[in-house]
Amino acid sequence: MSVSVQQADFDAGAEIAALAAGRDEVGAVASFVGLVRADKSAAGVGAGDSAVQAMTLEHYPGMTEKALTAIVDEARGRWDIYGVRVIHRIGRLLPGDRIVFVAVASAHRGEAFAACEFIMDYLKTRAPFWKKEETPAGGRWVDAREGDDHAAGRWATDGD
Amino acid sequence: MSVSVQQADFDAGAEIAALAAGRDEVGAVASFVGLVRADKSAAGVGAGDSAVQAMTLEHYPGMTEKALTAIVDEARGRWDIYGVRVIHRIGRLLPGDRIVFVAVASAHRGEAFAACEFIMDYLKTRAPFWKKEETPAGGRWVDAREGDDHAAGRWATDGD
Amino acid sequence: MNVRILFFAGLREALGTGSESLALPAGIATVGALRDHLAARGEPWTALATTKNLRAAVNQQMLGLDAAVKAGDEVAFFPPVTGG
Amino acid sequence: MNVRILFFAGLREALGTGSESLALPAGIATVGALRDHLAARGEPWTALATTKNLRAAVNQQMLGLDAAVKAGDEVAFFPPVTGG
Description:
- The complex is a heterotetramer, with two copies of chain A and two copies of chain C.
- Chain A is of the alpha+beta class.
- Chain A contains four helices and eight strands, in the order E-H-E-E-H-E-E-E-H-E-E-H.
- In chain C, 24% of the residues lie in helices and 25% in strands.
- Chain C has a five-stranded mixed β-sheet.
- Chain C has three helices and five strands; from the N terminus they run E-H-E-H-H-E-E-E.
- Chains in contact: A-B, A-C, B-D.
- Strand 2 of chain A pairs antiparallel with strand 2 of chain B, so a sheet runs across the interface.
């Protein structure tokens, strides 16, 4: 199972090892872990009371898994990769908690890095998750970053 | 200690967690694990007896740590990153064994990915390690890949 | 056959509901027309017109406001996604 | 004060030694000149001239063949690196 949406935490080391286990053509595993930051609100409010105390991740059950699988399939079409693992947590998380994991196994590092970053960029703009932060000033939904659309746009090709 | 050259294996998950532990400004950890491939010799010989049975990593004690530290320092100068971990194994390794680990912690994924890939590209061309493969046809030193020089060259700037 | 409509995140909160089932009114054939139809109900439904960069999915696939809608479809409206 | 010279990997095997200590001959002031001086010893030292893309380090820093060498330096010769 290459895509999981779950409340439970994950073990990045075990997931990386599993992608390479028993496949001696794998020479490279690139991976990414996203975590809840507390230092400043992702909502972009610069004022004092913006420290994030907790965060709740809402998603669109049914569509989420389809969207993630479509993103992984697109990566498999673009690069010669042997294995992909995507885990996205939902529910209430605290600062320092892991939110998302993406890992890609390939023969060489160039393809592993490119596919891993591609999947993260597309996940950020195409997978139906929404973050609501709890701060001393109250709850608020995180605004999408324009930079995320730009990052995903980098991968656009003529065929898209 | 951000750089280690060691015979012992490593735990990628524990290393990733350590980079983020107690630092709630870390929102992203990009990492890479390189492994010994067995399917085809890295020496580039296409013939039948090219399966890699084992690999021995030689290095230049004293220079190795300096070279890796210089690469990490250069990455810190180029990107706003909070933590870096580099582990390179030496000695005799078997197919499927982990060889190298690089992880970079940052606030955002773009910088973490770029710095992690930069460190790997520079390590491949500037850190004094050499691989000797054992195959059914005998031992042979791996040739450097031209693609590695090209990959490292991507990062050159006017200031270099 | 009705259209099933879903709302998520800040839009769900603004509307006070996460879903509804609706007989597709005559003449409504696109996501954008359905959005306008709902927004015309007045407060709080105007949030559908004022949400910045409103996104939509038809049958769990993200599509533009010009995408076709027909009876039996599942249509979702939501703000830009912020996962990862 | 001598120059300490190190050899690694395939070059070390070809030369049959990993290191030597040498009084820097008069007139040898660069890595390239030192390389030529050693290669002129004949077999197996010609490997220093024939190794493809020979690399060198002076005092544990990778430098080009035009880099300066002086008494007391540690000079290393090796093939392109293949770690990672």
